[in-house]
Amino acid sequence: MTYVAAIDIGGTSIKAALVDDTFTTITTATAPTPKDDSDGSATVKAILGIVSELEKSGPVSAIGFDTPGTIDESRGIARWAGNLGWKDLEIRSLLQAQTKHPVVYGHDVRCGALAELRSGAAQGFQHSIFIPIGTGIAAALIVDGAIRAVDGYAGEIGHMNVGADIECVCGLTGCLEAVSSAAAIEREYQRNTGAKKSAEDIAKSMGTDPQARAVWESAMHYLAVAVEDLITLLAPEAIIFGGGLAGAGSLLIDPLQRALDKRLTFQRRPLLKVAHYGSSAGTIGCAIMAFDALAQG
To answer: Within 10 A of 230 (CB to CB), how many other CB atoms are there?
Structure first.
């Protein structure tokens, strides 16, 4: 049996798993994503610690890891990752220099899309969009059955201007990510109430909490604006939602469907689906990427 370490680095936390060659998860590990780590050293240290922990359950043959942001996958460079504070960081080389294991690096959203395309909710569609919603928002574009990266620049829908009056981590005002990400929903709810609540709990408390309803409905409105543009431009057969916010299930899908029913006229109407792998899609995608690399030598 062959095992790989699959490590999904988000803006808030690192999710990892030891995965065997049947894509069965043997064990998992989590850690907070290091803050103020502009040179990547703390993140590399965290990855090495996680790999060491995973190896207690089986020998690791390769490491597949991903990050958010705009990345050059072929060169292993994070061009820009606002939620990590990285710019032109050669993160793959930094990790490879400190481990004997082969290292493969990918984009978090495209890794999640890889999992959903191979064996999840995107199976059977030639044209789909995978949108995980967590600390940030981005998309993986699946066109003609293949994930399109366009040199790593495609899919940064979190920085589409949807007309909101909130400043984004990128420095601009109006970005989707600043109003509809899980982190943005939590910030806005805390700003309005002084209370801390997860985005999923905010969604679930809408029936009894007017502030929760107002924040959630605003986030869904802006998300519908962005999704309408994507549908008009790309005509997907399906849109798959993942990330932490996918846990809201119908509380996410139903308001989006109602909004799109009102907004779409001539456009193809895609199926709206929750990711098969939920918030674990990125981790499974990292494992697939690592096994693909081992198979290719």
So the answer is: 19
- pTM, whole model, 2 decimals? 0.91
Burial 252-263 (b: 16+ CB within 10 A, else e): bbebbeebbeee
* 233's tokens: 């431009």
Residue pair 15/280 in contact (Cβ under 8 Å)? The answer is: yes
Half-sphere exposure of 55 (CA within 13 A, CB side): 13
Strand 77-81 and strand 60-67: pairing? unpaired
- Among the four given CATH numbers 3.90.1150.10, 3.30.420.10, 3.30.420.40, 3.30.360.10, the one describing domain 124-275: 3.30.420.40
For residue 194, CA distances in Å to 134, 190, 210, 219 come to: 21, 5, 14, 19
Dihedral angle sign, alpha carbons of residues 167, 197, 85, 28 = negative
> Shortest CA distance to 123 belongs to which of 138, 145, 108?
145
Cα-Cα-Cα-Cα dihedral sign, residues 11, 109, 182, 229: positive
Per the DSSP assignment, residues forming a β-bridge with 137 are: 133
Among all chains, which residue has been given the structure tokens 């509809």? 180
pLDDT in tens, 73-122: 999 999 998 889 999 999 999 999 999 999 999 999 999 999 999 999 99
